[in-house]
């Protein structure tokens, strides 16, 4: 079990992070299932249990962060505020839901019988039913049953399906907008990329970013957890003949980086940025950062995990967009 360090989270922090992420994903899926099926009797208790679990995990994460001697620091004020807002939402939403549920729960009344439905209630004096009941011989003195609303019943499934699809589309658009906004904020400085000189890799190859072919610039580090999942896609692109150059940010000397690449079986070219000056000049805010450059201009950029297929589509777009 590894502890927290200034560069990455330890085992307990990662377990708590994954637990909160899984709880939020399960609550989201339950909400969608609720909208589709409408079976509130079976889904609401599970939803409440997940909300309570999420609240407990948030409490545990806060206590562990207070008790930890050191932990990774936020790279910017925006990241710190976003982190704080996320934890406030995870704390306040389940808390408000639990308080509202407790307030709406009726008090126990064991000595009081449940009232009958309105259409089944009889007159207080069964021997003298209302005149409207007596006049209709078909009711035989019983209250008439309410008419069945066939049209409303037939229209419910299409309306429910349309509301569910609309909700899914809206949530997908919100997630896409958030990803694009985050990529825009974390994008490297386009002016710095245009003024960046030729890069020389550890094996002596020189890369000019003003080439007419799209160049994929990959900024990573051996201490970066997410880079371990993104680097295989970068290596696949390099093996497939795409123009790839990477910058290893504060990852040790050339021998250490070469040994690290051999350990994982990666062969993409690496420029060693041991002191972080190249990354600082590009205003890199997160790792991994991926930038697609053509003719010395920044065309596209993203950060975090990305698949090889997604990167190929971005390179293809940069190639045809001129």
Walkthrough of the structure:
- The chain is an alpha/beta fold and 322 residues long.
- The chain has ten helices and seven strands.
- It has helices spanning 11-37, 40-67, 77-104, 131-135, 150-186, 190-194, 227-239, 254-264, 277-281, 308-320; strands spanning 199-200, 206-207, 215-220, 244-249, 270-273, 289-294, 297-303.
- The chain has a five-stranded mixed β-sheet.
- Helix 7 links the parallel strand 3 and strand 4.
- Helix 1 packs antiparallel against helix 2, helix 2 packs across helix 3 and helix 7 (227-239) packs across helix 10 (308-320).
- The chain starts with 10 loop residues before the first helix and ends with a helix.
What would you say about this model in short?
The protein has 322 residues and is α/β, with parallel strands linked by helices.
Quick tags:
322 residues; alpha/beta; five-stranded mixed sheet; 7 strands; 53% helix; globular
SSE arrangement:
Blueprint: H1 11-37, H2 40-67, H3 77-104, H4 131-135, H5 150-186, H6 190-194, E1 199-200, E2 206-207, E3 215-220, H7 227-239, E4 244-249, H8 254-264, E5 270-273, H9 277-281, E6 289-294, E7 297-303, H10 308-320
Parallel strand pairs: 3-4, 4-5
Antiparallel strand pairs: 1-2, 3-6, 6-7
Q: Tell me which oligomeric state these chains represent.
A: single chain
Shape: globular
Radius of gyration: 30 Å
The fraction of residues in strands falls at 5-15%
Topology as a string of helices (H) and strands (E): HHHHHHEEEHEHEHEEH
Query: Which strand order does the major sheet show?
Result: 5-4-3-6-7
Number of E-state strands: 7
Distance between the termini: 50 Å
Low-confidence stretches: 110-114, 149-155
Share in helix: 40-55%
- Mean pLDDT across every amino acid position: 78
Number of H/I helices: 10
> Would you tell me the structural class of the helices and strands?
alpha/beta
Biggest sheet descriptor: 5 strands, mixed
